[in-house]
Design a protein that fits this description.
It is a single chain. By secondary structure, the chain is of the alpha+beta class. It has five domains: about 80 residues, Alpha-Beta Plaits (2-Layer Sandwich); about 200 residues, no CATH class; about 80 residues, Calcium-transporting ATPase, cytoplasmic transduction domain A (Distorted Sandwich); about 130 residues, HAD superfamily/HAD-like (Rossmann fold, 3-Layer(aba) Sandwich), CATH 3.40.50; about 120 residues, Calcium-transporting ATPase, cytoplasmic domain N (3-Layer(aba) Sandwich), CATH 3.40.1110.10. The chain has 25 helices and 24 strands. Strands 5, 6, 7, 8, 9, 10 and 11 form a seven-stranded antiparallel β-sheet that branches. The chain has a seven-stranded mixed β-sheet with strand order 12-24-23-22-13-20-21, sandwiched between helices. A hairpin with a 2-residue loop joins strand 1 and strand 2.
Length: about 700
């Protein structure tokens, strides 16, 4: 591929592809390819001009080397991946806008007036029909107002005014539809399933394989807390499945043998084996888009209020027009009232402000499932963090394995990894990762693994019962014991790390020491959140008092709680809400799910448990807690913009009505200023909140 450098500054380069114009598919394939290069921060492909803009870090050489020897015909990405980028949809709206302006220009300058007026009346029928349908449903809303203004203009043979009204209404519809569709697509892409590996049933064994290796007809095992990766039918097992993302049901649904399950839903309790029915990703993406479009999640309370206010103002607009006509008998001034209303701008600018905020969150790798959650975040005063995997690093590591019998350390680790690899928890991942580092092969040698949330794992190897979990679970619930000659060793375990206990036949056989270092940015993130308006910052943990206290002091939270069970965490959230506080909960694990459900705003870490992401209202990238502070700032700026837009709309349109009644401006001029201001406010609502 021949490239020409058009412009270059530090960290940014603009390239031109010499050759034929790029198709949408080529542009999207090129976007995916360049984005995958490790030194690339951001890329933009301009398919109509054959230009590429790349924002990069470190050296540009590896990027240019890869592009110079690239052949577009050799890039082969799936249809699903390309469709989800939405370039084709963007080009459709660009073409619609272009044609809208071009048609207006042609009608005004090249179509004979009688024919133009006839075409205008035909086009006006759509708006008049919408107004009549509103009246038929006994509603006096914005379509009635638009239809009345257009009808009066045509009745007065003021075809120019009618054309202007319809042109600006059509332009507003295209921009609103485009912004909404783009925001929905951004949100759907962020929410769409991203399954890396799955447990494939191979005879009696379960083998961890890449999701793209699964075909229709394969058998897949899905455990508690995991996302169901494919559409299918349950062939074994029993589970409670949270399928709110697909059906909107708030309560989990029981799935037994013969039940259908859907990709993207999450197992809250139990375990199933499913027969894969649909391995393609497109259907999952389409389902998510439909779910968002059909739901009311996108609409914030303030947006809803202004939408209803817009409809409520319509009767008063008619009343004002009637009073003006009764007092002045001037149809021109009366028409001016109808052509300058508040509702059009309120209904257009407010949703765009909200959707722009959601889109900006997506650009920052945050999934925001609805505007109402940003509104609640702006008003929140209390934030609660889970400790493990949230304030501490998402990747804790094994420091050491202490054997309490004659068994080799590596053998203890191998047994633990064999069981832990089935479950999505940061400490479980630490055990599995350490076994991989040591090249310990741990083939399936156990029976079914049972996971008790916030406690541990129970399974069997041969005739021996194996338990792995917390101190509370192993010693209090399961009544495991320590050999007399090992009690001193147990007392001398280091206190600066977390302990994972493994017992066989109710005798402690090993303790896995896990380092759970605090995130580097945690302390600064807490300070930033306090500056952003949170007056109480709480940390909750199921860990010991000793460990929780050390982490709390390190990051600087106001209050901390230790040794909590999932139901304790949820109860704490409810108590804060009972005090009149709006509460944000940040977590990543299965045991955080009840607390996330109880909070006003639930924030999950992107690489946490699937059930946490499913329940969460917002999901942030795992690499930085600073994103929460950014989201708080974004939410506050969104609310300020909405308030500012409201004042502008009232001020501008109120002034135009007064000027029209006083006879200082003509209705056509008032209409032009009204529609131009509406468009200007709406376009302004699309601007970035945070630069």
């Amino acid at each position: 591929m021949k490239l020409i450098i058009k412009h270059q500054t530090k960290g940014r380069i603009r390239l031109h592809i010499d050759g034929n114009s790029l198709s949408n598919a080529d542009a999207d394939s090129l976007y995916i390819f360049i984005s995958s290069i490790s030194t690339v921060d951001k890329v933009k492909i301009y398919d109509r001009t054959n230009d590429i803009v790349i924002f990069y870090k470190e050296s540009l050489v590896p990027i240019l080397d890869k592009l110079s020897c690239l052949n577009l015909s050799m890039i082969n990405y799936s249809k699903d991946e390309i469709e989800q980028l939405g370039r084709n949809k963007d080009n459709v709206y660009i073409d619609r806008l272009t044609w809208h302006f071009l048609r207006r220009f042609i009608y005004k300058n090249f179509i004979p007036m009688p024919i133009g007026n006839l075409l205008l009346m035909i086009n006006a029928f759509r708006y008049i029909r919408q107004g009549l349908l509103c009246l038929k449903n006994k509603k006096i809303e914005v379509p009635v107002l638009d239809a009345t203004a257009i009808s009066i203009s045509i009745f007065r043979r003021d075809f120019g005014t009618a054309a202007n009204i319809m042109f600006l209404l059509g332009l507003g519809e295209i921009l609103e539809d485009w912004t909404r569709k783009k925001s929905i697509d951004d949100l759907a892409r962020a929410m769409s399933l991203n399954t890396g590996k799955v447990w494939k049933k191979d005879g009696e064994q379960e083998v961890l394989v890449n999701a793209d290796e699964i075909s229709s007809g394969d058998m897949v095992a899905v455990n508690i807390g995991s996302q169901i990766p494919f559409d299918g039918v349950v062939t074994a097992g029993d589970a409670m499945v949270n399928q709110a993302s697909m059906t909107g049901e708030s309560e989990p649904v029981r799935k037994t043998i013969g039940s259908s399950v859907y990709a993207g839903t999450v197992i809250e309790e139990g375990r199933i084996i499913l027969l894969v029915k649909e391995a393609s990703g497109a259907t999952k993406y389409e389902k998510i888009v439909k779910m968002i479009e059909d739901s009311e999640k996108l609409k914030s309370d303030i947006e809803d209020r202004y939408s209803h206010l817009a409809d409520k103002l319509v009767p008063y607009t008619f009343l004002g027009a009637g009073l003006v006509y009764a007092l002045t008998r001037n149809l021109t001034k009366t028409l001016g009232i109808l052509m300058v209303d508040f509702s059009c701008a309120l209904k257009l600018a407010m949703p765009i402000s909200v959707l722009s905020a959601i889109g900006e969150g997506a650009d920052r790798h945050s999934t925001i499932k609805g505007g109402k959650y940003l509104e609640a975040l702006a008003e929140s005063s209390v934030i609660v963090f889970d400790k493990t995997g949230t304030l501490t690093k998402a990747e804790p590591r094994v420091r050491d394995v202490i054997s309490f019998n004659e068994m080799d350390k590596d053998e203890c680790l191998k047994i633990a990894a064999c069981l832990e690899e089935h479950f999505p928890h940061s400490m479980a991942r630490a055990v599995v990762r350490e076994a991989e580092i040591k090249n310990l092969e741990h083939t399936e040698m156990h029976s079914q693994v049972n996971y008790i949330v916030a406690h541990g794992i129970v399974s069997s190897i041969g005739s021996e019962r194996v338990i792995i979990g917390s101190n509370h679970f192993v010693f209090e619930d399961e009544k495991c014991s320590i050999r007399d000659d090992k009690k001193e060793l147990f007392k001398s375990l280091p206190v600066d790390c977390s302990h994972l206990y493994m017992a066989i036949n109710n005798i402690l056989e090993a303790v896995i020491l896990i380092e759970d270092p605090v995130r580097e940015e945690a302390s600064q993130a807490i300070k930033d959140l306090r500056d952003q308006g949170f007056n109480k910052i709480i940390m909750m943990s199921g860990d010991s008092e000793r460990t929780a206290k050390a982490i709390a002091e390190a990051v600087g939270v106001d209050i901390y709680y230790s040794e909590l069970l999932p139901e304790d965490k949820a109860m704490l959230i409810k108590k804060e809400k009972e005090l009149g506080n709006k509460v944000v909960m940040v977590g990543d694990g299965i045991n955080d799910s009840p607390a996330l459900s109880a909070a006003d705003v639930a924030i999950a870490i992107s690489d946490g448990a699937a059930i946490a992401r499913e329940i969460a209202d917002i999901t942030i990238a795992a690499d930085s807690l600073n994103e929460i502070s950014v989201l708080k700032e974004l939410s506050k700026k969104m609310m300020k913009r909405i308030d500012k837009n409201y004042k502008r709309i009232i001020g501008i349109n109120g002034s135009l009505i007064c000027l029209n009644v006083l006879g200082l401006i003509q209705p056509t001029t008032a209409s032009l200023i009204h529609n131009a201001s509406t468009l200007g406010i709406s376009i302004g609502s699309m601007k970035k909140y945070i630069k």
